[in-house]
Amino acid sequence: MVEHRERVTRFGFEYVEAALTERRTRIPVMEEEELEDDLVRESTEVPTSLCARLYGRRSAHRRAEQALVATQIG
Question: 18-35: string of b/e by CB count within 10 Å (b at 16+)?
Fold first, then answer.
């Protein structure tokens, strides 16, 4: 049992649900009425996740460059 679908998977819950239905089991979701348009929600979650990765890499790259500059000065 889960409170929200996102606790199982960030997107693609329908696929997990379909696979479990084939095995005659299911995941009870307590907050079913919160289901908004899944396609719209998922279409924003995927780019958001990818952007977070990209900006995290940029930040790590900048910190590494700053560390190299700092060691060359000293």
Answer: eeeeeeeeeeebeeeeee
